[in-house]
Amino acid sequence: MKSRKAGTVTFVVVRSGDQGLGQWTGEARDVADDYRTLFGEPPPDPRAIALSIDANDTQSTAHTLFGRIAFMAS
Length: 74
Description:
By secondary structure, the protein is low in regular secondary structure.
């Protein structure tokens, strides 16, 4: 999903809603495949990754704790 506020930002929404509320959850993503799906080409070497949680557009609240992030060769 393209950001409405920053034209160079594209979001991949992994989870939305209250399913799993109050529980620890884990995620595994193939970020190279996400990039290929979004942009139709292989990804360049990443210089940064951003993780976010956002509730301002829904005028609600949200809380998160990010744990260990690891990249593994596919």
